[in-house]
Input
Amino acid sequence: MEDEDVRSALKEYVTEAEPPVGLTGDGVLAAGRRSRRRRLTTVVAVVALAAAGFPAGTAIIALPERNEPAAASPCGAKSPEETTEAAKARLSCVLEATVRARVTLGSDTPFDLKAIPIGQGNGYHLVYPVRDGSLSVTVLPNNGTLLSTGTACRRLNPAPATCSASLIDGGTLVETTTKENDGHVTYGAAYQTETAIVEVSADGGDNARPPLSEAQVREIALTPGLVP
Output
């Protein structure tokens, strides 16, 4: 997929009346290999949480604060004066550390997210080879809107094989499994807070199963410090 395709999709995110959660995991992840067969589509249409609260029975899981990396992190912390290049370096550092801690990549090439201007800020995007498959990560700023767990999965287009939505540390995590007719499987996790949207997808290339497990994809999406 060309940078211009990603740029257009990210710009659409900030100009829609009800912006989507971001880019579909399988659409972004299949960049290059499937760019002629697929187009970027919405993962979830943003729905404001009702003032009455969350749906009954929804689990709320307390996790570490995600707005900043740990104090001792070598990647540094986000600052109000942070430049685009500094943000790229920080986010690439945080992402590479969390991914390499969970999976053998088969490549020593450093992570280098691409900055895509959207509105008054930037989105950041990376596709990285992992053994015979690939990993896709998109990080976007959010305007304060949150997702309702009760409607998040119902608004997915196209509908995945499986979908679950849960409240985690003030944000909404949407996990999906997409399965094609040929058995090809993609795992996706989209985590949306008031300030950021992080989407992670793992694709197995010509293999049926992705090189990362569903748990690993989820853990990467929930990594503290991935805030543009």
About this structure: The CA atoms of residues 75 and 90 lie 5 Å apart. The radius of gyration is 16 Å. The chain is about 20% helix and 25% strand. Confidence is low (pLDDT under 50) at residues 13-71.
